[in-house]
Write a structure and sequence with these properties.
Helix content is 31%, strand content 24%. The chain is of the alpha/beta class. The chain has a single domain, classed as Maf protein. Strands 1, 2, 3, 4, 5, 6 and 7 form a seven-stranded mixed beta sheet that branches. A hairpin with a 6-residue loop joins strand 3 and strand 4. Helix 4 crosses helix 5. The radius of gyration is 16 Å and the shape is globular.
Length: 192
């Protein structure tokens, strides 16, 4: 089976490909000739996933899936949430985002947070949503050099390490994206 993954984030594409273990042939936006930035103007994570999937299906005619992910911090009323990638500004710099978040949490005792990924799948004229959540805490300083985004400051439940310290094998079993992708795979396998 061939599906377009509506992303040009090569870290994300690599992570999803490793979770899929070759069961689906992924095409990136580049591979279908989509070089424009797909607008992410929704005010929810679900909304952005749907916008991106619909854009590819409507403009290019492919069955596809798109994801959107946000980090939701309890003490900050769910921020940065849908604005996670551009929390510290349009430059979308991971270090700037982490520094802003760590500063915002300086006086907070409650550092609980969760990553939330929503995948919107457009296939055979239908749309399906899959949600994966990884609960954990925001630690006091960055640790580790694997992963991307907020991984160096997010410590998942039941682990001493951050996502950026864990091997990709472990992260790809317990992460929000892995959980949403597993649901996607289960759905695709059930329709074969």
């Amino acid at each position: 089976m061939q599906l377009v993954f509506a992303s040009n984030n090569h870290n994300k594409i690599k992570e999803i490909q490793s979770i899929l273990k070759g069961s689906i042939q992924l095409l990136s936006l580049d591979e279908i000739g989509c070089y424009e930035e797909i607008p992410e103007t929704a005010d929810t994570i679900e909304g952005n996933a749907i916008l991106k999937a619909n854009y590819v299906t409507e403009k290019y005619g492919y069955d596809c899936f798109a994801d959107d992910t946000g980090l939701e911090v309890q003490a900050l009323n769910g921020e940065p949430g849908v604005y996670s990638a551009r929390y510290a500004g349009e430059q979308r710099n991971a270090d700037d985002n982490m520094n802003k978040l760590l500063n915002a949490l300086e006086a907070q005792n409650d550092r609980s947070a969760q990553f939330k990924t929503v995948i919107a799948l457009n296939i055979k004229g239908e749309q399906h949503l899959f949600t994966g959540i990884a609960k954990g805490n925001i630690i006091l300083e960055k640790k580790g050099d694997h992963g991307f985004g907020y991984d160096p400051i997010f410590q998942p439940e039941n682990y001493e390490e951050t996502f950026a310290e864990l091997s990709s094998d472990i992260k790809n079993k317990i992460s929000h994206r892995a959980k949403a992708t597993e649901q996607l795979i289960d759905y695709l396998n059930s329709t074969k």
